[in-house]
Amino acid sequence: MLKVGDRLPAGNLQEFIEVEGGGCSLGPNTFDIEKLTTGRTIAIFALPGAFTPTCSAQHVPGYVAKADELRAAGVDEIWCVSVNDAFVMGAWGRDQKTAGNVRMMADGSAAFTQAVGLTLDLVSRGMGLRSQRYSMLVKDGVVATLNIEAPGKFEVSDAETMLAQARSL
């Protein structure tokens, strides 16, 4: 399992692009994790699934609300990562009004989630292999903080905790 001081694993995430431009075409685009994190500070939070209750009511809205404060604390970008496809993440981003604040990054095949060792088996609930709920602050591709939730909890991966950590580094 990933820990503080580890470099993020190589790989890709996808994002649904709403407006063509800046080298990105309309629709799902694939992004290299290493390229996106090199020389930057990224707040990443991951959750079990798009449109799920805690994720939609608390987790994403908290980061949207704290986006300006996180940027003021030195965070270049905020990513929401979930084991969903880019189309679902794009629709969820529209629903949550994340544009300009949180990048909705799809880990459709759970490759990133498996590589960081933070999978959650929800097969018995009809959801398949998903991500545990966690957050991390990544500086130049290296994990500076890591907050992994206990099963069924939402106590340490929230935007307030991430903001306090970003301010202290």
Give keywords:
169 residues, alpha+beta, Glutaredoxin, seven-stranded mixed sheet, two-stranded antiparallel ribbon
Description:
The chain has 169 residues and is of the alpha+beta class. The protein has one domain: Glutaredoxin, CATH 3.40.30. Helices cover 30% and strands 30% of the residues. It is built from six helices and nine strands. The strands form two sheets. Strands 2-1-5-4-3-8-9 form a seven-stranded mixed β-sheet. Strands 6-7 form a two-stranded antiparallel ribbon. The model has no long low-confidence stretch (mean pLDDT 95).
Could you write a compact summary of the structure shown?
This is Glutathione-dependent peroxiredoxin. With 169 residues, the protein is of the alpha+beta class. It has six helices and nine strands; from the N terminus they run E-E-H-E-H-H-E-H-E-H-E-E-E-E-H.
Q: Helices, strands, pairings?
A:
Layout: E1 12-17, E2 27-32, H1 33-37, E3 41-47, H2 53-65, H3 67-72, E4 77-82, H4 86-96, E5 103-106, H5 111-115, E6 119-122, E7 128-131, E8 134-139, E9 142-148, H6 159-168
Parallel strand pairs: 3-4, 4-5
Antiparallel strand pairs: 1-2, 1-5, 3-8, 6-7, 8-9
Total strands: the figure is 9
Determine and state the CATH class: Alpha Beta
Distance from N terminus to C terminus (CA atoms, Å) equals 23 Å
| Shape assignment | globular
Supply the number of helical segments: 6
